[in-house]
């Protein structure tokens, strides 16, 4: 049985294999994804983001277990920092979620960010589609936690959960950086620590500034390690899902996500076209040296390259 039929039959290994092939930009795998694309769109995709050390992995673990008790199937895409030695993902999340890895209703995939500034692997959008076609009810996408460029997560998800934590000293910085704007639901994790209520108040104050918003993001206090507040957090996530689906906001967000994905794919295709051939890369290196020496300007180089591509 080929990988396409195996995927549709609910074969976990086929899903894992197809994701690996797509990470490596395999054209046959891409053709499979194109054919099966109409079968996607059923899973609810939740992005989990926040600063490093906020306990995102522990919270993802607890949310998954709670949803499994409801009989739901769950996929977890953990976007890890890329290993400087192997270029692959550092599988810390999978180690921490060891208990879940034996659950047939849970699919865990660690992906290397590979230097992608948005905190999201370039192949994440494809992996989401594969797990969607595979037949999961929920897909969590957990990011590295890289600051303002984390807003890329919004381009892949239906609901974004922002996890904050007291005592890191960067709560206000995150608020000022504008990262706060991407959250649909906020969780103050490790809320048994000093300063948790102050952190929640600061988030609420910032949210008060956006008085025109149709949805007021709830702020939930959670201690993920003790499983405290997890059920209330799931309820808040469901409330946002229901709010989105009760209006045209749901299809609007997915349409915006699709638009962003198309733009990113076009950029990637153009970049690959420019750099693929070694001669082109040599010419670009030579042009870069001339730019550095002020012998030519970068705008003229771009005009030349784009002109030759007939864009």
UniProtKB/TrEMBL annotation:
Keywords: Chaperone, GTP-binding, Hydrolase, Nucleotide-binding. The keyword GTP-binding applies. SUPFAM superfamilies: P-loop containing nucleoside triphosphate hydrolases. InterPro entries: GTPase/Isobutyryl-CoA_mutase (IPR052040), GTPase_ArgK (IPR005129), P-loop_NTPase (IPR027417). NCBIfam families: lao. PANTHER family: LAO_AO TRANSPORT SYSTEM ATPASE (PTHR43087:SF1), LYSINE/ARGININE/ORNITHINE TRANSPORT SYSTEM KINASE (PTHR43087). Belongs to the SIMIBI class G3E GTPase family. ArgK/MeaB subfamily. This is Methylmalonyl Co-A mutase-associated GTPase MeaB. The gene is meaB.
């Amino acid at each position: 049985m080929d990988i396409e039929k195996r995927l549709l039959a609910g074969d976990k290994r086929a899903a894992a294999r197809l994701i690996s092939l797509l990470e490596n930009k395999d054209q046959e795998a891409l053709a499979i994804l194109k054919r099966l694309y109409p079968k996607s769109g059923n899973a609810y995709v939740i992005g989990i983001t926040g600063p490093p050390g906020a306990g995102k992995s522990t919270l993802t673990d607890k949310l998954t277990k709670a949803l499994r008790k409801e009989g739901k199937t769950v996929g977890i895409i953990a976007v890890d920092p890329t290993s400087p030695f192997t270029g692959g993902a550092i599988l810390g999340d999978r180690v921490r979620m060891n208990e879940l890895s034996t659950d047939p209703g849970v699919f865990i995939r660690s992906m290397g960010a590979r230097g992608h500034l948005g905190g999201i692997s370039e192949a994440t959008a494809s992996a989401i589609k594969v797990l969607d076609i595979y037949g999961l009810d929920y897909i969590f996408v957990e990011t590295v936690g890289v600051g303002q460029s984390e807003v890329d997560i919004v381009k892949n998800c239906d609901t974004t959960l922002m996890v904050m934590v007291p005592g890191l000293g960067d709560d206000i910085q995150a608020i000022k950086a504008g990262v706060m704007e991407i959250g649909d639901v906020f969780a103050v994790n490790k809320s048994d620590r000093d300063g948790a209520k102050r952190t929640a108040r600061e988030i609420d104050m910032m949210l008060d500034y956006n008085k025109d918003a149709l949805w007021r993001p709830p702020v939930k206090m959670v201690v993920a390690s003790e499983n405290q507040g997890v059920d209330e957090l799931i309820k808040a996530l469901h409330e946002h899902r229901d709010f989105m689906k009760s209006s045209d906001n749901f299809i609007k967000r997915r349409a915006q996500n699709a638009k962003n994905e198309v733009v990113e794919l076009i950029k990637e295709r153009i970049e690959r076209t420019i750099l693929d051939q070694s001669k082109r890369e040599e010419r670009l290196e030579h042009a870069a040296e001339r730019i550095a020496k002020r012998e030519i300007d970068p705008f003229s180089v771009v005009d030349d390259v784009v002109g030759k591509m007939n864009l």
